[in-house]
Amino acid sequence: MAGDKIDLVQIKIEPRPGETYSRPWNYTVTWAEYKGAKNATIHKHFDISTTAGEGIYDFLIIVKDENGAVLELKKTIRIYDPANLPVDPTLSLLNLHIDGTPYYRNGAFCYRRP
């Protein structure tokens, strides 16, 4: 919600001072379709480029209104190179029941009918 009508909504991902990165990178996207709106619910998706350097960044959400007022929310995010992900998530699960009794659970038969 802007104090007056919205001028722009913007996302920025910026390197943090004092951090070291494998390569220089930043990101900015501005959505002009909200210009002139008094209020807006914004749900947007965007991709972070594979050229983004691994490291800790400032993630900023910026809303400016037509009177020049600015609301800025800053969060910290970490971008990983896929080869350096701290986990390799895999989920494999299959459960079958007969009359509410487990029959097959995650790769093993656990009950056989008489």
Provide an overview of this structure:
With 114 residues, the protein is mainly beta. The protein has a domain at 6-83. It has strands at residues 6-15, 27-31, 55-65, 70-79, 95-98, 101-105, 108-109. The strands form two sheets. The protein has a four-stranded antiparallel β-sheet, with no helix packed on it. A three-stranded antiparallel β-sheet has the order 5-6-7, with no helix packed on it. It is flat.
Number of beta strands: 7
Distance N terminus to C terminus? 65 Å
Give the structural class.
mainly beta
- Biggest sheet strand order reads 2-1-3-4
Radius of gyration: 24 Å
Provide the β-strand percentage band. 35-45%
**What is the helix tally?**
0
Helix content: under 10%
Q: Main β-sheet: number of strands, strand sense, barrel status?
A: 4 strands, antiparallel
Oligomeric composition of the shown chains = single chain
Spans where pLDDT lies below 50 across 5 or more residues: none
Shape, principal axes of CA atoms: flat
Series of secondary-structure elements, N-terminal to C-terminal: EEEEEEE
Mean pLDDT across the residues is 84
